[in-house]
Design brief:
Blueprint: E1 2-7, E2 12-19, E3 22-29, H1 34-49, E4 58-62, H2 68-85, E5 89-92, H3 94-99, E6 109-116, E7 119-127, E8 133-135, E9 140-143, E10 156-158, H4 160-173, E11 179-181, H5 188-195, H6 221-227
Helix pairs in contact: 1-2
């Protein structure tokens, strides 16, 4: 199985290639440079593996939620590559990919991405016996103080939402997290890990759709004043 994975939903731009048992990856924290970096990164991992694009069996993509432009870029790139090659796309939640970076224990996992405008993208997950994760609640976009609680246990928290709203989230959770790390972003290597068991469920490129969770991308001047 040769699987190319793309993830650009946050400040991190990353690409990974699973070529049989081998893994090749590129990742760079590069806000506003994703469009410049993405396709060269794809070419680099393919060249390192000695694999032509026509050797790909599927393309996996972090479909969001996250920054609108980043999510659109990743999905559009995955669609274009897959359509040209006649291979399926495997959409993967960017929050699920982020959750994979939490410690491998039984604690619930809260993956949170700073959504700007005073909000977070959030998803609750649990670790599976195979080391992957599955959701235990619907993903949401909300104010940190209004985070729906899928668990009352001490959880593992991962993602930029923790860096921005740690104090608010602590109060909302009601218990100190077992582990928390805010300097983490979804990565293509984890998109690839989650996609690999689901390649047979991949969809036609045009059916791989971005997940935004919210439609509004900017505050009005009045809203900006009230948010201060």
């Amino acid at each position: 199985m040769n699987l190319l994975a793309i993830e650009t939903a946050t400040e991190s731009c990353s690409v990974a290639l699973l070529a049989g048992e081998r893994l090749f990856a590129r990742s760079e924290l590069a806000p506003r440079r994703h469009a410049e970096l993405l396709l060269p990164m794809c070419d680099e991992v393919l060249a390192e593996a000695g694999l032509a694009r026509r050797g790909l069996d599927a393309v996996a993509v972090g479909c969001g939620p996250g920054a609108f432009t980043g999510v659109r870029l990743a999905v559009s790139a995955a669609q274009g590559i897959a359509f040209a090659l006649g291979v399926p796309v495997v959409p993967v939640s960017s929050l699920a990919a982020l959750a994979l970076q939490a410690p491998e224990n039984d604690a619930p996992i809260l993956a949170v991405i700073d959504a700007r405008m005073g909000e977070i993208y959030a998803g609750w997950f649990r670790r599976m016996p195979d080391g992957l994760v599955e959701p235990i609640a619907d993903e949401v976009v909300c104010a940190a103080a209004e985070l729906p609680l899928a668990s009352r246990e001490a959880c593992n928290v991962v993602g930029s939402g923790w860096s921005t709203y740690a104090d608010v989230l602590r109060k909302r959770l009601g218990v100190e997290p077992s582990w928390a790390e805010g300097d983490r972003y979804p990565q293509a290597v984890d998109v690839a890990r989650l996609a690999l068991p689901r390649v047979r469920d991949g969809v036609a490129p045009e059916l791989a759709l971005p997940v935004y969770l919210r439609d509004k991308v900017a505050l009005t001047l009045d809203e900006q004043q009230r948010a201060r």
